[in-house]
Amino acid sequence: MTAHEGATVLVVEDEPSIADVLTIALRYHRFEVMTAGTVRQALTMAERTRPDAALLDVMLPDGDGRALGRELRVRQPDLAVVFLTARDAPTEIVGALSFGDDYITKPFNIDEVIARITAVLRRTRPADVLPERPPLRYGDLELDETTYSVHRAGRTVELTPTEYALLRFLVRNGGRIVPKEQLLRHVWQYEHPAESTVVETYISYLRRKLDALGAPVITTRRGVGYGLA
């Protein structure tokens, strides 16, 4: 069974033709699919069925998809959230990624949508039964591979699933500088990494959370990538 097989995706899109294309493609790839055209419908459906992932249009007739994403995450912290947006300005993208797992700009390629959702679910959807694993440690950082929790100097660090996946990859690489392209492949599962600000955005989120509990731990090698001090 693949990481996503049997996973349920909530598609929130008010344009019927787009919703139909997404639904057909997702079902073809063995996802369970629910659709909603408004914020209100989406909240009702999510409460009833608890989906594994939500694919959210940013502009909805009765509200903002980003606000919907925040509310869904409050109700279900392990929910994977991917945004569909016609806006590609850096401020829009950063705003969406501050609590979501990925974003896709319109017009989109349907194969890319499937690949992005599959990749996000690999990061966020645990196996039904997880073996007991020893924690990962680097300096005063400790990552529990069973509970997906993080501590620094004994204090809990609250991370999103994508933030956790990024930090775990850096920890597994020790003090080595990891190229940005490698992070895009291994953390975001991008088959053909292109220019993207997603790595820089998530590095800034990690720094903000980790540096609040100690000395700066993430280093930057300009033009190359990132590592741990």
In short:
The protein is an alpha/beta fold. The protein has helices at 16-28, 39-49, 65-75, 90-97, 110-124, 161-172, 180-186, 198-211, and strands at residues 8-12, 32-36, 53-57, 59-60, 63-64, 80-85, 102-105, 136-138, 141-144, 149-152, 155-157, 178-179, 218-221, 225-228.
Quickly list its features:
14 strands; four-stranded antiparallel beta sheet; CheY-like_superfamily; single chain; 8 helices; DNA-binding; phosphoprotein; WH-like_DNA-bd_sf; five-stranded parallel beta sheet; 229 residues; Response regulator transcription factor; alpha/beta
Count of helix runs: 8
The count of strands amounts to 14
Roughly what percent helix? Answer: 25-40%
Q: Mind telling me the C-alpha Rg?
A: 18 Å
Low-confidence regions: none
How would the blueprint of this fold be written?
Blueprint: E1 8-12, H1 16-28, E2 32-36, H2 39-49, E3 53-57, E4 59-60, E5 63-64, H3 65-75, E6 80-85, H4 90-97, E7 102-105, H5 110-124, E8 136-138, E9 141-144, E10 149-152, E11 155-157, H6 161-172, E12 178-179, H7 180-186, H8 198-211, E13 218-221, E14 225-228
Parallel strand pairs: 1-2, 1-3, 3-6, 6-7
Antiparallel strand pairs: 4-5, 8-9, 9-10, 10-11, 12-14, 13-14
Helix pairs in contact: 1-5, 2-3, 6-8
Overview of this protein structure:
This protein has about 230 residues and is of the alpha/beta class. It contains eight helices and 14 strands. It has helices at about 15-30, 40-50, 65-75, 90-95, 110-125, 160-170, 180-185, 200-210, and strands spanning about 10, 30-35, 55, 60, 65, 80-85, 100-105, 135-140, 140-145, 150, 155, 180, 220, 225-229. The strands form four sheets. The protein has a five-stranded parallel β-sheet, with helices on both faces. A hairpin with a 3-residue loop joins strand 13 and strand 14 (about 225-229). Helix 1 (about 15-30) crosses helix 5, helix 2 (about 40-50) runs parallel beside helix 3 and helix 6 crosses helix 8 (about 200-210). The chain is globular, with a radius of gyration of 18 Å. It starts with 7 loop residues before the first strand and ends with a strand. About 35% of the residues are buried. The mean pLDDT is about 85.
